[in-house]
């Protein structure tokens, strides 16, 4: 059994792909019937030898062999160059060379001019039998494709009917016997049966190829889904492993400080702040994990209202200016009047996280927060002059627990802040993007669409 080619990932519809595959299958099975035709032509020549003019018999045999040879050469060329070609090539091949099969049917039907009512009955019977059996086998072979199959059947039957009618009308001037009309009736019945058999075979072949197409599509879909499931499991395993690792550090520090305090209680003033710092780190870790869990489960309730952007940024300036000044950094706020539909608390949390990151990763220079109206809504940009992020990491920084390798400042973080920011932005329907140049700084852009694009459904895990 010949291996079937895989379903190609290209823009062909199912009917087109099926037609192309039927052409391929027909050409794969064509050599057997064509070689049989090469053998039968000399047999027919031998049967008619001595009963018909030699010149006419030789002309017919030469024409039949020529047509069969042309088909064999096409079959060989297709097997050598087009066997694995795509659907479009298969369809073009059939459109260009499909005339060969009706021509073959005409050639075999035309032999009736030599033998019908001109040779002994036994010879006529043997010739009609050869034509009927050969025609049936040819239609079976061609039944993969409806058009060449029907073309061959019509050409064979019409030519045979024409031979009989020529004898009845032209030669006998309607003074024919029951034998002639009987042969005409049998030929018409054979024609109908030939078409019905060809159609039945064609529908069987088509159903098989359609089933193959759908099975391949199903396998392809299941393979993709299985890979997605494996990726999700790997992602969750990594999530748990990193969460356990990052949680262990402050918890372990708490144990060490507690043991130290139990042995040297007089150092409580020195150790207590460290214990408090480790406790805050653990709480911050769990807060971020809970936030992510609620966002993924769709349990975060949004209170959508009109938010005055200039006022929101003014409040945040009061909160962050002292922190940046303490680090020797400048903070500039630029905002034009504007309002947007959002959740005030979560929007502030998104901006606070972005400002916190800018503060954390900027050693000199400053931070600029700019808000301005655009055709789509209000765009808020958070610029910093920090260490920047390499381009290959920009697509990963919104993943849970992702920390840019060899990036100063990431060792004391959890890699969850930007993941929460991304989920909140998606939940609120705000667009979030980032651009960065290593050594020059980073800009996060949050676009708040006009009219609000609040999503009632939580985003899926990436």
Characterize the structure shown.
This protein has 462 residues and is of the alpha+beta class. It has twelve helices and seven strands. The strands form two sheets. It has a five-stranded mixed β-sheet with strand order 2-4-5-7-6. It has a two-stranded antiparallel sheet with strand order 1-3. A hairpin with a 3-residue loop joins strand 4 and strand 5. Helix 7 packs antiparallel against helix 8. The N terminus and C terminus are likely disordered.
Keywords:
disordered N terminus; five-stranded mixed beta sheet; about 450 residues; Heat Shock Protein 90; 3 domains; alpha+beta; single chain; about 10% strand
Number of domains: 3
End-to-end Cα distance: 43 Å
Query: In what order do the strands lie side by side in the largest sheet?
Result: 2-4-5-7-6
Give the helix level as a range of percent. 55-70%
Order of helices and strands: HHHHHHHHHEHEEHEEHEE
Proportion in β-strands:
5-15%
Average of the residue pLDDT scores? 82
Q: Tally the helices: what do you get?
A: 12
């Amino acid at each position: 059994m010949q291996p079937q080619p895989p379903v190609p990932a290209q823009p062909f519809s199912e009917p087109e792909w099926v037609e192309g595959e039927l052409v391929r299958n027909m050409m794969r099975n064509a050599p057997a019937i064509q070689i049989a035709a090469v053998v039968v032509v000399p047999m027919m020549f031998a049967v008619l030898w001595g009963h018909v003019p030699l010149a006419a018999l030789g002309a017919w045999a030469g024409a039949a062999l020529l047509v069969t040879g042309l088909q064999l050469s096409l079959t060989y060329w297709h097997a050598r160059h087009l066997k694995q070609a795509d659907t479009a090539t298969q369809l073009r091949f059939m459109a260009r060379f499909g005339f060969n099969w009706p021509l073959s049917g005409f050639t075999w039907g035309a032999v009736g001019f030599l033998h019908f009512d001109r040779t002994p009955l036994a010879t006529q019977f043997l010739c009609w039998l050869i034509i009927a059996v050969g025609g049936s086998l040819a239609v079976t072979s061609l039944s993969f494709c409806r058009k060449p199959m029907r073309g061959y059947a019509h050409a064979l039957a019409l030519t045979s009917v024409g031979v009989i009618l020529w004898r009845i009308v032209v030669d006998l001037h309607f003074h024919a016997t029951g034998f002639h009309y009987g042969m005409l009736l049998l030929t018409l019945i054979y024609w109908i049966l030939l078409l019905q058999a060809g159609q039945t075979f064609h529908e069987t072949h088509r159903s098989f190829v359609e089933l193959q197409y759908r099975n391949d599509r199903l396998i392809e879909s299941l393979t993709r889904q299985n890979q997605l499931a494996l990726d999700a499991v790997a992602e969750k395993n990594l999530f748990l492993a990193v969460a356990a690792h990052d949680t262990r550090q402050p918890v372990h520090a708490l144990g060490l400080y507690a043991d130290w305090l139990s042995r040297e209680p007089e150092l409580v003033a020195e150790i207590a702040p460290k214990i408090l710092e480790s406790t805050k780190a653990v709480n911050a870790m769990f807060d971020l994990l809970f936030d992510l869990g609620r966002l993924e489960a769709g349990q975060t309730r949004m209170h959508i209202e009109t938010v005055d952007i200039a006022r929101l940024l003014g409040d945040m300036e009061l909160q962050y200016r002292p922190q940046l000044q303490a680090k020797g950094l400048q903070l500039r706020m630029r905002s034009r009047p504007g309002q947007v539909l959002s959740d005030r608390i979560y929007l502030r949390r998104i901006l606070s996280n972005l400002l916190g990151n800018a503060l954390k990763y900027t050693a000199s220079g400053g931070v600029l927060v700019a808000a301005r109206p655009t055709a789509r809504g209000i765009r808020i940009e958070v610029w910093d002059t920090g260490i920047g992020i390499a381009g290959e990491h920009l697509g990963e920084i919104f993943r849970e627990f992702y920390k840019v390798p060899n990036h100063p400042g990431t060792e004391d973080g959890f890699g969850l802040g930007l993941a929460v920011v991304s989920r909140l932005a998606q939940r609120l329907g705000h667009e979030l993007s980032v651009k960065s140049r290593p050594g020059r700084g980073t800009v996060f852009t949050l676009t708040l669409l006009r009219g609000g694009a609040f999503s009632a459904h939580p985003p899926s895990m990436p």
